[in-house]
Amino acid sequence: MSATFVVIGSVLLMIASYAGAAVAALFPGDGNSRRAAAILAAAGALAGSLAAAATLVSGGTFGLELPSALPAPALAFRVDALGAAFLFLIGLVAAPAALYGIGYAPDHHPRRGDGPGAPESGARGAGAPGRRLAGVMFPLFLMAMSLLVTAHSVFTFLLFWEAMTLSSYFLVVGPG
To answer: Which letter does DSSP use for residue 1 in this model?
Structure first.
């Protein structure tokens, strides 16, 4: 199996896993969708680490350019030694963070004002819309950060920089 196939296939698997995690986090439920989202996010992180390791071991540079109807803003990606090092570090931190997220349910941690005599709130628990938003934004943040270090054009870099910025904004200001 060639290194090009392993790297490009792993990056595509990473993207699919992160996107699947974001979609799985949209579904309310008893925690199964949250667990599926976390496992898919961890799988995406591991796939990115595999792509990085294959690049570092082979010593090559692997690229992919997606066609565009416009001349300048084509999506171009390249995994070289520097990008692979950062992609490996992202995967190294993202996989445990995603798995830790399975046990970290905001409905298990009391908010201020909770306790005896506190007014009831209808939007509590991991299935609340704001909490689902955080579950969706985490894999999107990981995907944007992973694709940012593989950007090979200014347009691609700025696109994923903004995606990373917006998703991190919603992670910081969101409930939970």
So the answer is: -
Alpha helices, DSSP H, located in 25-128: 32-58, 81-103
List, for the chain, all residue ranges whose pLDDT scores fall below the cut of 50. 108-110, 114-115, 118-124, 126
Hey, which residues does 62 pair with through a beta bridge?
Answer: 79
Opening angle at CA 99, ends 139 and 108, nearest 5: 95
What is the C-alpha to C-alpha distance for residues 95 and 101, in angstroms, rounded to an integer?
Answer: 10
CB 83 within 8 A of CB 49: no
Pair 79, 55: CB distance under 8 Å: yes
**What are the two backbone dihedrals, phi and then psi, of residue 149, each rounded to the nearest 5 degrees?**
-75, -10
CA distance 9 to 31: 30
Tell me the pTM.
Answer: 0.83
Q: Report how far residue 80's alpha carbon sits from residue 97's, in angstroms, rounded to the nearest whole number.
A: 25
What is the spatial distance between Cα 48 and Cα 70, in angstroms, rounded to a whole number? 29
Structure tokens at 8: 């490009």
Is 176:131 a contact under the CB 8 Å cutoff?
A: yes
Extract the tokens encoding 126: 């991991």
Task: Give the residues across from 79 on adjacent strands.
Answer: 62
Give the length of the chain.
176
4-14 residue pLDDT tens: 889 889 999 99
